[in-house]
Design a protein that fits this description.
Strand content: 25-35%
Strand order of the largest sheet: 3-6-7-11-10-8
Radius of gyration: 17 Å
Order of helices and strands: EEHEEEHEEHEEEEEEH
Largest sheet: 6 strands, antiparallel, barrel
Helix content: 10-25%
Distance between the termini: 28 Å
Structural class: mainly beta
Length: 207
């Protein structure tokens, strides 16, 4: 096996809906986006978008792995249209993981903001195309960072960009996470940064 430089560790599944998190975290949620394939979205006459042909998380997992989720699995019945999470960092750019960006143009992924539980319709100013991209996918030994920078087709109108923290992350730091696990609606959880790889700690930053 190989070392995992930084991760969020906890003893049980503490993920929860964004509506249940603190105000301090909730105010950042509009700047978090889900990467969703074009064929999962229907463009309406007024320019808005609506989900189409979206499967449940349990069905998506079975399609990918051949095995279904258990009846007790968290969020198993929630819609699963996405492939990853992105974060607005300037007026017209977002950042995500390199392994997510590697399929952007192949799958015609759109950057969709404000995908929370129960939401199926999106205004035109919540959906964007990727214009240009740079990315690097991590190696198995974690010797390279896993990042991607994506320029959008126009300025983001629905939220403000997040501020990037560039100072080194300390081991055992408490952090909060926002994202779209397995492509479902936005979730939130708290955790603790663990580091067993000094070089990774020195080069890693948080958004």
């Amino acid at each position: 096996g190989h070392e995992i430089p930084l991760a969020l560790y906890y003893d049980n599944d503490t993920r929860q809906e964004v509506r249940d998190c603190s105000y301090a975290v909730k105010r950042l949620a509009p700047s978090v986006a889900c990467l969703i394939p074009e064929w999962m979205l229907n463009r309406n006459r007024n320019g808005s978008y609506t989900f189409k042909n979206v499967k449940k998380l349990s069905d998506c997992v079975k399609d990918r792995t051949g095995y279904p989720l258990t009846d007790e699995a968290t969020f198993r019945d929630q819609a699963c249209p996405g492939t990853g999470t992105a974060f607005a960092v300037t007026r017209n750019t977002v950042m995500t993981a390199g392994h997510c960006a590697a399929i952007v143009f192949q799958n015609k992924l759109k950057v969709v903001f404000n995908f929370c539980l129960g939401k199926e319709n999106f205004d035109a100013n919540e959906v964007y195309d990727v214009k240009n991209m740079m990315y690097d996918v991590t190696a198995k030994d974690c010797s390279k960072p896993d990042w991607a920078w994506m320029e959008l087709d126009r300025d983001i109108e629905c939220c403000d960009p997040l501020t990037i923290e560039t100072s080194p992350i300390q081991s055992k730091s408490l952090i909060s996470m926002l994202g779209h696990p397995s492509g479902i609606s936005m979730k939130y959880c708290d955790g603790t940064v663990q580091s067993n790889h000094k070089e990774a700690q020195e080069r890693t930053c948080l958004i």
